[in-house]
Design brief:
homotetramer, TIM Barrel, alpha/beta, globular
């Protein structure tokens, strides 16, 4: 069972916006691990996986596993529209020493639920690492319906689901229907990690833990301890990050741009972002810097 | 400030499927009030408001206020595409003794946020009762964006928002941004009332409290008391209702049909439903009866 | 069989934005009839039907039928979420002398196709005038699927369908599957009336014929005559109206605001618009006036 | 300027469902060319491009160009979420002798229009072959708005747009606004090719021309000749294919499955389909065979 805070790692890029920045990747990983998170998830939505070439994806897998060196489990996103490419990424992950792979539904054609079920079952059969489902309907167009998840949970190689739908009714139904099933249920949006853990969820795959890993770990621990005064104090900081860092600039990519901008403001990586996106302009970067400063000074007081 | 469990009352209909069934309305109201809920909300989505004629809506407002007789506050849905009709319903509500009115965005044309803001501000100016916003984007097509809500919360006659989007990230942002503002934030989906109250929400407008008002009140009380053993016990029952009563039959209207079917199985009202919907067929009704029986026997043990 | 150009009439309003402006309604109807259109459709989407009170809707039906005085057939929109209100509007229409009624699907709850079929069949049974289906999925959320339309076309009182989906593949399938069935198929968007008539459609319900009825009639006639030089000349004017009058200001309501603004610029009605919308501000009105001027001078040369 | 019928070629696969079937690819290409089409488009939506590995995509490009051997122009889909992979596919296409490349928007993240514009401009700068835009909002989530297309049409290396939105109002606006601009506008859906060509479009990228290339070419020719008797005769056959081959089985993938099933019934390729899809079961295949038989016998009479 996977529990706790998993960091969906951003992918540090060189100034050509497409090549892996290995030096800053090392920086970032050390920063994250030092914050006490329970796992690292590379090549997810926050990791811009689909926007990277396969060469870059492979390099990131290998470098990350080398740097982490088994200190925490590494989860690798193998989401792809081609099952052959997903399987190839899984093989690289296995070879590199990753703990598990994570796959959202193929995202070009919309799928019927039966098609989706057959796809996942077949994928789980063909990868040598345990498989996490990843529900992300806003991006993939295909929701992994409750019934489909229940059937897939029967596969011995499918060990959990990360839900980034932000539909907590959906999540809560899964928590109820999969109780005592040895199946991990993690939420994407960091704004609701605490409450879903209070209600039986296993943890969060929270982007903000790239910047402030200690905060999300502390909030998780306070939640497990049911220390509500501490929860409120930390949740407010999580909400400040959410409303002041992720919503600058144009909608859609503002989360990604804010996250990389925030990490650049903290001096951990450069803010380069892969096409089709472009980094924040100076105006937004100034806002990010100012807000990060403010959040950091608050954080230093409570952590 | 409105806190607690508000019942979004179903509208009991005679066998012509369009006329108000006053006798069973009385039954239902007494049943709900005896369960200890904190308020009654008529003419909402669960109340099939838009499917009823204006004559029937007016009659329901008057009869309900008479039956309730100020024992608990009555909230009246005035959601309409015509502002004149909304204002007329508000006037009837005021006259009848209702406590507040509730309005979702006009739902035929999609609205821009500026149009939406101007609409709500003008409506709040023109109704004599306090106004609750009602976010229901799946039905109205127009989301009440965070920024719009913050600006509307400045109007002295706008006192809260009911969110039925099921997007708890949205709800949690409102809780954070409107903290200490004397603005009630209630959630629609009963599956997440407990967790949103734990994180600062004010309560739930929960359809299931038509059938089992004591359950939802007990869960709310356990949540306020942070009695997690009790929360888990009761939340499981809420989830059983959610997964076994609301998801029979065809998608979309299954919630409404299940709810009225459940109330009929309990002998509280007849299952008649207004066009464009049709009541469950015998097959689904049998499933409802069986599941209600099972839930009721469990409930009797814990309440 | 209904063929040709039907004008979906805007509803002239007084400066309170909610009351019918009878004087300008007369102006507008005479203007439209003098342009030679084949029918008048009131209380459609262009007519802001859902935003008007029932009193105003009833008044418009009665006044319009009186003014038209059987010179051309009058079609009345009875689209509503309450079937009782739809039936009441149909009775008023019958009494006033209208030729047929038009109904889009109920638009608050999304409907399954079986629910939709049963709804329409029952409605057709209960109205004394012939019924036109109206497909408008962007506003009603429910598409009238091909299969459903084919089954409904069997009802002796359902005489046609107006399609405003802009999905011409859908429309073309209906043309093919309902060939020789005595069932009228009209398109909403004026940009594609000519081409759909060339391929077997029966005509257009074209908003622009409020402003320039002669243009749309001339284009229809040229299309019937397969006079391609004339078609191109007139189609260019239709496209100029589409791109220069309907796309100013904010998306969604820009069509309505541009249409009423254009009619005001032509001196036919005032630009008042019902809530939740607001009329164009001066800046957009100036653009409308300038563009209308330009189009009018071109039109004067070719008509 | 590209005019006429372009075949969006399906990708023949071996029974492993992932490897290119070179033998049947040759069959299919000869069949298509013998039908007189004006161009061949590989690796589009009909070609299951996103579901194939990069190795298979590269192989298909090289084999196709070799087989075609410049008899007709070859267009290659380079749609991808990674710009590096798109550029790599363009380089292979150039080397192999293709005429142009075609790209839909990146399809994992939704893009803002400014982001989309910058992405396409940059892509057009970096590929050595002329670039066709490909609007496919149902699959990519991002519509290429009118304004964006107009600005992109200024790039000397962007030569046209294929629109598969089925929104013919959108298409007709582009035809009007890009008149005399040396910019090709082609539609995807074969049901509307004739009418869009009548109104100024340049042709169709019609999947059915995999099966019956002569039919679509004959319809195009009849359209250019404005031979309306012939158009009606042939359009009816196109509609019969549309309604009897593409709509069997489950929604979404039924088009692809029907197309490959139809080609198998004609003995041109095997029906193997790449994951995440699965070929039709025997029941649907029998329906396909029967319908193809019927269509073929009709076709033999008119062509």
């Amino acid at each position: 069972m996977i529990n706790g805070i998993i960091t969906p790692m951003v992918t540090p890029l060189l100034s050509d916006n497409v090549s892996l920045d290995v030096k800053h990747t090392k920086n970032l990983i050390e920063h994250i691990i030092s914050g006490g998170v329970h796992g690292l998830f590379i090549l997810g939505t926050t990791g811009e996986a689909t926007n990277l070439s396969y060469k870059t994806r492979a390099k990131l897998i290998i470098e990350t596993c080398k740097i982490v060196n088994n200190r925490i489990p590494v989860f690798v996103g193998i989401t792809d529209t081609s099952i052959e490419e997903s399987i190839a990424l899984a093989a690289i992950s296995k070879e590199a020493g990753a703990a598990a792979v994570v796959a959202a539904p193929p995202y070009y054609y919309g799928l019927g639920q039966i098609e989706l079920f057959k796809y996942y079952w077949s994928l789980a059969d063909q990868v040598a690492l345990p498989l996490f489902l990843y529900n992300m309907p806003s991006h993939t167009k295909t929701n992994i319906e409750i019934e489909t998840t229940l059937k897939l949970a029967e596969h011995s190689n499918i060990i959990g689901l990360k839900d980034s739908s932000a539909n907590i009714v959906y999540f809560q139904k899964l928590v109820y229907l999969l109780k005592n099933k040895n199946f991990s249920l993690l939420v994407g949006p960091e704004e609701v990690t605490s409450q879903t853990v209070l209600m039986g969820g296993n943890g969060g795959v929270n982007g903000g833990s790239n910047m402030f890993p200690k905060l999300y770990v502390a909030l998780y621990n306070a939640t497990i301890a049911k220390d509500f005064q501490r929860i409120e104090e930390l949740q407010d900081l999580v909400m400040e990050i959410s409303t002041k860092i992720y919503s600058l600039g144009s909608f859609g990519s503002s989360y990604l741009k804010g996250m990389k901008g925030g990490l650049a403001a903290l001096g951990i990586i450069d803010a380069n972002i892969a096409p089709p996106f472009q980094s924040f302009e100076e105006k937004e970067m100034n806002a990010v810097r100012k807000n990060i400063e403010h959040i950091k000074s608050k954080l230093d007081k409570v952590l």
